[in-house]
Amino acid sequence: MQVRKICSSCQEEEKFGPIIDKDDLGYCKGAYGREAMVSGLMVVPINSRGIKFGAMTSNIWSHVTSAATCNIPSAFNVNKATPTNVDINALVPLLLGTTGSASIAPDNMGYGYSYNYFKGYLHKTQYQTSSMPLWLKARRLVAEETSCRSEIGKEVVINGYSEGGYGAVSIAESMESYGARFKLTAGGGPYKISSAVITEGYKDVTSGNYPEYLRFYFPLVAQAYSSTYRGIENFGSGQDLLSESWVTNGKRYTRRDAIGITTDLGGANRLNELVSTPMGDNSLSNWNQDFVKFIDEAVNDGVMKPCENQARINQASREGRPVNRLCEALLANDLSDYINSITYPYNLCHSRDDEVVPVENVQEENDFTSALIQVPGDHNEAGLMCIQEAVTFFVSLKWFVYFMSTESLLT
């Protein structure tokens, strides 16, 4: 197989024809970063002549969370003496690339070549905007470099875990809007960002159950909902998810500090310093305290979908602590409605004992249970098994049976 870094943008790919978006998701039209040159890893099967001739399917790996701007799939480095040290964000697309399928792993917006853009953590459009141009570029490159003797068709398998699980579902939505035919295997994802993520997650944090070493997730998601992503529902409304300032372990930080660190080189240690320890009530001091109080009151009253409760939202506004626009932003990026509308085959892999992404993201009100694969272990342990499920799907050639069982879209 051949491994290379590829870069493209919505604007570049539009030069070769309109980018189909029949559901008007806006992942290239008007989206933040549509002009950004995004990067990613591409793996294609080769032989002695170069890229193998013939039609091939493709897979897209949505990578797990990286706190560091440069820790991305396309920047991996393999020491031949110790090849087992390959980062998981590069290892999965490499493994999937050995199946004869083209493999693509986007770096995501704000990472790699688009390092100077804000990171859209758990903002669904950024995963679409940073993956669709790369998939289109890969299709074009393979056709051009083989004089159309090879082609990446519209059959795609999309997978990812944790943040990547959320990203995989987001990418699947854009692929469906484009007209591709695909299979989705996502695991451990925070799909219900307007409900289970903020309510069940709040309980884990304040009870001290949330793992301290992963607290950098809080400023990552908060900065994405703090007037950084143009076009998001709470942009410039005065309802940012980040607090204007807060004190962490005796040191004062500001909203600007958090956004600057996240957008710059990032890094788990630097982001962890923004969050108070030990884990408990003070660990969310870097979040908008009006919104934290809104969540706290809802959890205490047993209301697990507070952003869908207009009476509570109105009450907060009357008390001078509005959260309506922030709730609108979270609802717009919640993936539960889309997942419930899925008619194609998909699997969601999750552990009941996940201490990072609560299992209620896939089990609340029995949503998605027909597609649920339950595995044991904590978030990281479950991740190994969920990723194995995705890889096994390819190694067993189930992907071939799935795509060739009905009329192919390869053209």
Overview of this protein structure:
With 411 residues, the chain is an alpha/beta fold. The protein folds into 2 domains: 2-192 and 336-404, Alpha/Beta hydrolase fold, catalytic domain (Rossmann fold, 3-Layer(aba) Sandwich), CATH 3.40.50.1820; 196-332, no CATH class. It is built from 16 helices and 12 strands. The chain has helices spanning 10-14, 88-97, 124-129, 132-145, 163-178, 196-206, 217-224, 255-263, 268-272, 289-300, 310-318, 324-332, 336-341, 360-363, 379-395, 398-404; strands at residues 2-8, 38-44, 46-47, 50-51, 54-62, 102-106, 150-161, 181-187, 245-248, 251-254, 346-351, 372-375. Strands 1-2-6-5-7-8-11-12 form an 8-stranded mixed sheet, sandwiched between helices. A two-stranded antiparallel ribbon has the order 3-4. A two-stranded antiparallel sheet has the order 9-10. α6 crosses α10 (289-300). The radius of gyration is 21 Å and the shape is globular. The two termini are 23 Å apart. Residues 406-411 have low confidence and may be disordered.
Which terms would index this structure?
single chain, 411 residues, alpha/beta, Rossmann fold, 2 domains, 8-stranded mixed beta sheet, two-stranded antiparallel ribbon, 16 helices, 12 strands, disordered C terminus
